Amino acid sequence: MNTLVEHIQRLRDKQYIHDFVIEKEMVCSKETNEIFEPENLIIERTYRYEGDSNPDDMTVAYGIAAPSGTKGVIIDAYGTYANPKISEAVRKIPVREVDENQVTS
In terms of CB atoms within 10 Å, which of 19, 48, 73, 100 comes out highest? Predict the structure, then answer.
């Protein structure tokens, strides 16, 4: 099983280099200061992680693409410990998973 750090590195290697945060129901890039409505983004990759020693250690990392070409990551717990603000925003983002074997720029 891969660790959360390995999943994040896999996303970084695929050019999801920015960190997205949720502010006032909008998705914001901390590095570029871009602000996006969730509906205008696409979830292209999803990695779930469950801790080896603690089943409550459940995290999901999303690889998200914006129309501007900005690609980034949002991380959240899932299940009981999920952040309601993040979960609500992510539910609004359409999912179009990219094939792992597909070459991306």
Answer: 73
Q: Are 34 and 68 in contact (CB under 8 A)?
A: yes
The total number of structural domains that make up the chain = 1
Residue 105 lies in a domain: no
Query: Is pLDDT at 63 greater than 50 in this prediction?
Result: yes
Which residues touch 68 (CB under 8 Å, ≥6 apart)? 34
Supply the range of the domain harboring residue 42: 4-92
Q: Chain centroid to CA 55: how far?
A: 21
Q: What is the pLDDT of residue 35?
A: 97
Q: Indicate the pTM of the whole model.
A: 0.85
**Mean pLDDT of the 87-104 span:** 80
Q: DSSP string spanning 84-98?
A: HHHHHHHHHS-B-PP
Name the residue type at position 1.
Answer: M
| CB neighbourhood size of 14 (10 A) | 18
Residue 97 placed within a domain: no
